[in-house]
Amino acid sequence: MTAASRGIRRRDAFRALVSALTAVILCACVASAGQAAPKPSAKKLRKELAQLQKQSETMIAEYYAGRIELQKVDKTEKVARGNLKRAQQELERASTEIRLLAVEQYRTGGMNVPSALVGDVDPAGMLNRLALAQQIVSEQDARLEGFQKVRDFHRRAQEAAEKRAGELRASLKKLDGQKKRAKKLIDQIKDKIDQIYPTPGLRRADGTWVPQLPSGPDNITPRMRLVRQLVAQRFGPRFGIGCYRADGGIAGGGEHPLGRACDFMLSHGGGMPSAAETQRGHQIAAWAIKNARRLGIMYIIFRQRIWHVRTGTWRTMSDRGGTTANHFDHPHISVY
């Protein structure tokens, strides 16, 4: 092999190496560019959320329509079972009558009279008894046949109802799974919307937050304002949100005059909230616990219990003497 040919081979190998490295670098650049893609805006996420909620509502409507249909089928199946049971009882009663008739025929002689006694038997009575027996047997046969038809009809109806019920239950199970997946996606998008907003204020090395001064016409801190906004967006202020007040009030919120607390009401006029509203209160409290460290939430009070971010657990509070004072009609959230 000549020196020139060896040089050409080296140049070709070098070029191939450069091409390979260039390709690797380009791929890395593309990958990093993909990772650095901008986060979706709150507007885009809310649009996706609205679409998902619409799909979820459609699935819920289909789910409940299916449940109503299933209840109708269950009722039809129950009626069929009752009719079948009655038909079976009638069949058994008729069968018993047939057996009793056969026993009576055998006991009184019927057709099986010994030949030695034929001369002593009244032929007319014998014929009358035979005709009566045949009539009874014919009637019982007809009844048996009718009961068998009824039994078979209702058995088929029952099988059809059970099959339909099975199909509906499978459909409802599928819809229920889809509904749960949609709810999970909705919660994920809501979490993303929450995380788009940075928490205002400075955080200490131990994880707690530097207190802020209230500002604005609502007299609450920027951190409390963000928490109020996120709760209102996610859960809706159905009965109002109370934050700043000059004194602690009957609910005892020492943070209210400092603009660092809000009450998210679940009912009006101090009345006990409904089961659905109480559940909403639990959801607000659970959301606050989940986001406490990120949003600078210090403690939560709900249903005569308090949760503090330092301990991460609930503890029972003393009775303050009323629905509102004991926080049964609202979760209270305080921030640092």
How would you summarize the topology of this molecule?
Blueprint: H1 3-35, H2 42-108, H3 123-196, H4 222-235, E1 241-242, E2 261-264, H5 275-290, H6 292-295, E3 297-301, E4 305-308, E5 314-316, E6 332-335
Antiparallel strand pairs: 1-2, 2-6, 3-4, 3-6, 4-5
Helix pairs in contact: 2-3
Keywords:
336 residues; alpha+beta; Helix Hairpins; 6-stranded antiparallel sheet; 6 helices; 6 strands; elongated; disordered N terminus
**Residue-averaged pLDDT:** 77
**Rg result:** 41 Å
Helix proportion range: 55-70%
The first-level CATH class of the largest domain is given as Mainly Alpha
Shape: elongated
Number of helices: 6
The CATH topology of the largest domain: Helix Hairpins
**How many β strands by DSSP?**
6
Listing every helix as H and every strand as E from the N terminus to the C terminus, the arrangement reads HHHHEEHHEEEE
Can you list the strand order of the major beta sheet? 1-2-6-3-4-5
What's the main sheet like?
A: 6 strands, antiparallel
Distance between the termini: 81 Å
What would your notes on this structure say?
The protein is α+β, with helices and mostly antiparallel strands and 336 residues long. It has two domains: 42-196, Orthogonal Bundle (Helix Hairpins), CATH 1.10.287; 222-335, no CATH class. It contains six helices and six strands, in the order ααααββααββββ. It has helices spanning 3-35, 42-108, 123-196, 222-235, 275-290, 292-295; strands at 241-242, 261-264, 297-301, 305-308, 314-316, 332-335. The chain has a six-stranded antiparallel beta sheet with strand order 1-2-6-3-4-5. A hairpin with a 5-residue loop joins strand 4 and strand 5 (314-316).
